[in-house]
Amino acid sequence: MSTGTGTGEYCAIFYRTQRLRCLVKSDFFLSNTPEIPGSISADWGNSVPRMTSWAVFAIVGEKRRVTVFNTHLDYASARARELGAMLICDRLSHLKPTESYLFLTGDFNADPGSLPREMLERPLPNGVTLNDALAGVELDQQLSFHDFTGKAFAAVDTIYYDSRISLRQVKVDTEQWEGVWPSDHFPVVAEFVVTPEMDST
C-alpha cells in the first residue's frame, strides 16, 4: 500500500539520465487531504492508501520539458477510482502547457470506456487533452493484467499522452524477462514523436 514512508508500494518513474534531467519531483495522495502521506478518506470507499507520483524533466540539449504523472487507482472502490481520476485531472489542469508536454501512466484498475478512464480524456481547463495510447488497438490486444499467469484478462493499464504529441507506435509487451514475469501486469510500451511545428509552439 502507498503509505508515503518508503516501505510500502510507490509509483516509481524510471528514466534515462543520459536523456532526461529531473528538475522537480513530488507525490500526492488520492484522498481529501492529498498532501498528507498515506492519507485515506473514508467516504471514498478504499481501504488502503493510493497515490500519484510526478516529475518534471528537461530533455538534455533541447528546450522541451516533459511532465510525467504515474498513479495506481484503487481496485475495489469505483468511487475511489472516480474521485482519484478527478483529483489527478485537477492537478494536471494547474500545469502550464506552454512549459511542458504532459503524460499520465499507471494501473487504473478500470476498463476502457469506464467513467474514470473517460474523465482522463476530457479536455482540461488549461487547454490540454490527453489521448489514450491504446485507444486504436483492438481490446484483446489491450489486455495487460495477467496475475503472473502469462495470460492477460483485463485492460487496466495504459499511457495517456499530450495531444500535441504524435503517437508512433504502442503495444502491450507480453514477453518474459530472463524467464520470469517481472510483474503481474504486462507493460504498455509506446514511442512518441514531437514534430518541429509542435516544438515551436
What does this structure look like?
With 201 residues, the protein is α+β, with helices and mostly antiparallel strands. The chain has one domain (20-199): Deoxyribonuclease I, Chain A. Helices cover 13% and strands 28% of the residues. It has three helices and eight strands; from the N terminus they run βββαβαββββα. A six-stranded mixed β-sheet has the order 1-2-3-4-6-5, with no helix packed on it. The longest helix has 16 residues, at 78-93.
Summarize the structure.
This protein has 201 residues and is an alpha+beta fold. The chain has helices spanning 78-93, 115-120, 196-199; strands spanning 20-29, 51-59, 65-72, 101-107, 130-132, 157-162, 166-172, 188-193.
Defining key terms:
alpha+beta, Deoxyribonuclease I, Chain A, 201 residues, 3 helices, 28% strand, globular
What is the molecular shape?
Answer: globular
User: CATH topology, anyone?
Assistant: Deoxyribonuclease I, Chain A
Number of strands: 8
Residue runs with pLDDT of under 50 for 5 or more positions: none
Work out the radius of gyration.
17 Å
Strand order of the largest sheet: 1-2-3-4-6-5
Itemize the secondary structure elements and their pairings:
Elements: E1 20-29, E2 51-59, E3 65-72, H1 78-93, E4 101-107, H2 115-120, E5 130-132, E6 157-162, E7 166-172, E8 188-193, H3 196-199
Parallel strand pairs: 3-4
Antiparallel strand pairs: 1-2, 2-3, 4-6, 5-6, 7-8
